[in-house]
TrEMBL record:
Protein known as: Nucleoside hydrolase
Domain Inosine/uridine-preferring nucleoside hydrolase span(s) in chain numbering: 5-299
Species in which this protein is naturally found: Bailinhaonella thermotolerans
Key words of the record: Glycosidase, Hydrolase
Name of a matching Pfam family: IU_nuc_hydro
Gene Ontology BP terms: purine nucleoside catabolic process
CDD domains per record: nuc_hydro_IU_UC_XIUA
Region span, Disordered: 72-96
GO MF term list: purine nucleosidase activity
């Protein structure tokens, strides 16, 4: 049976690929796409999610806008990586995909109540919407099977030396979701940097020859240039699609059950995730953390999704 999923995102180039994968793969029953301020402001992330639905022919999946700022700090965006619009070179006009007439948090609450089974939330942006859901509707925690997160790192960061962008953008929200009692699985930079869009990968997508494939190639080509310029790495990682792939096939990613904390007060480390992989503390394991990705099996999954929706 397909896994009922709500995808919470902040499109963003790699979010676009995550949307395509979640909508295309038969292992997922995509109930909704919800947006949050993150890579760019909420108005742009919401427009971008709707635009991706247009490009990919995704219909019947509600798109709802959520929180426009973090719980306790000023917004932090990443337009230097994703472009001013958030979708790099793509022309982003007024989308045709409609916007749901309710706040994302209220939509998630309603869908959780309507589902016959607990729902998996895949969260690939700052965790503001999910923390707000648990604050506003604490009973919904029992209706969430787990939260699968693209966030954090067991190594270095990208927003700051030790803080990954999504956790740095709203550390309080990340901390609250981690401590909510809902099972969490964290796929951080240490594992997403194993999903690199090398030229041969981009060429295999271009070979599909569809408008959707062409849009994905434009996105990843732009993303590659951003990563070479901003991060000085030769190939861009498609972070967010990794979290979706895990829900489709858990065997793609080896995880460690470990103790995890979100740093809230460090002068130089605010927003960092601290994973006790070596058991150096007396903390009880409270999360699963991605460690290794089978990239040889990951990429065919994503290319197949682009082929499916582009047909």
């Amino acid at each position: 049976m397909p896994v009922p999923v709500i995808l919470d995102c902040d499109p963003g180039v790699d979010d676009a690929l995550a949307i395509v994968l979640a909508a295309a793969d038969p292992a997922i029953d995509l109930l909704a796409i919800t947006t949050v301020a993150g890579n760019v402001g909420l108005d742009k992330t919401t427009r971008n999610a709707r635009r991706v639905c247009d490009l990919a022919g995704i219909t019947g999946v509600p798109v709802a806008a959520g929180c426009d700022r973090p719980l306790a700090q000023d917004p932090h965006i990443s337009d230097h990586t994703h472009g001013e619009s958030g979708l790099g070179p793509l022309t982003v006009g007024e989308p045709e995909t409609p916007l749901a007439g309710e706040h994302a948090v209220d939509l998630i609450h309603r869908l959780l109540g309507e589902s016959e089974t607990p729902v998996t939330i895949i969260a690939v942006g700052p965790l503001t919407n999910i923390a707000t859901l648990f604050r506003r509707y604490p009973g919904d925690r029992s209706r969430v099977a787990r939260v699968v997160i693209m966030g954090g790192s067991t190594e270095r960061g990208n927003a700051m030396p030790y803080a990954e962008f999504n956790t740095y953008a709203d550390p309080e929200a990340a901390d609250e979701v981690l401590r909510s009692g809902v099972p969490t699985v964290w796929h951080g930079l240490n594992v997403t940097y194993q999903a690199l869009a090398t030229p041969d990968i981009i060429e295999s997508i271009a070979a599909l020859g569809t408008p959707l494939a062409d849009a994905c190639v434009q996105l990843m080509t732009y993303y590659a240039e951003s990563y070479r310029t901003v991060w000085r790495v030769p190939h861009p990682p498609v972070h967010d699609a990794v979290a979706v792939a895990y829900v489709i096939d858990e065997s793609l990613i080896e995880c460690a059950h470990t103790a995890l904390r979100v740093e809230l007060r460090g002068e130089h480390t605010r927003g960092a995730t601290v994973a006790d992989l070596l058991g150096r503390t007396d903390w009880e394991p409270n999360a699963h953390v991605g460690v290794t990705l089978d990239a040889a099996r990951f990429w065919p999954l994503l290319v197949s999704a682009i082929r499916t929706l582009g047909a």
